[in-house]
Amino acid sequence: MPRSTSSEPLRYERKFLITDYSHLEVEQMIKFHPACFSEIFHERIVNNIYFDTLGFSNYYDNVEGAPDRIKVRIRWYDNLFGAVKNAILEYKIKKGLLGKKESYNLLPFSFDEHFTKEHIRNAIAGTTLPDSVQKEILSLQPTILNSYTRKYFLSRDKKFRITIDHHLTFYRIGYNDNNFVNKSVNHKACVLELKYDSEFEKEAKEVGSNFPFSMTKNSKYLEGLERILFNS
What we know:
Elements: E1 6-7, E2 11-18, H1 23-31, E3 38-52, H2 57-63, E4 68-77, E5 82-84, E6 88-95, E7 98-105, E8 109-111, H3 117-124, H4 131-139, E9 141-154, E10 161-172, E11 183-186, E12 190-197, H5 201-209, H6 220-229
Antiparallel strand pairs: 1-7, 2-7, 2-12, 3-4, 3-9, 4-6, 5-8, 6-7, 9-10, 10-11, 10-12
């Protein structure tokens, strides 16, 4: 993997897919948690375009539980459509239960029903992305667009970070003929992610045990494909 403009250490990301409580109820549980979580950032909308091979190899690696797997996406915040500034190309890398992100800054581009491969080409042209990364992203196909609202929390000892995602919305996307009418919204669930460095694994079990729901395997990418592409 070529060197990126931003790289994280490997860490755990424990996910909880919650359907029995609203996101507002989950927020209250977090605020009254013994680890004393507090909100650390303003609520914002997260947008992602996911990319995969023509044979959906990244999808099948995730379904089959391959120990080493990857997801490729372009992420930006707030308005889904219109001028996109500060977009980031991310490689989300999983090695067993540990994961990290390799990130690359992109140039601004516009995002609407006229989205094509040329928008991606222009977003990477003139950047410091290694040639190998540019060639790889242009060899992949956009598969799913998703959008959700996220809140951020940090424990008092700063060892544990939590995000809550709700209003999960998924769209079909390609390099041609996008109207973004074909979408699916998951109104019933929210996703809590507990994130921490590997050295805090023992303490994390206690943090997780204070929630009235169990850790689950969850991937917004897999959910989006199965809602929009594979069940259409």
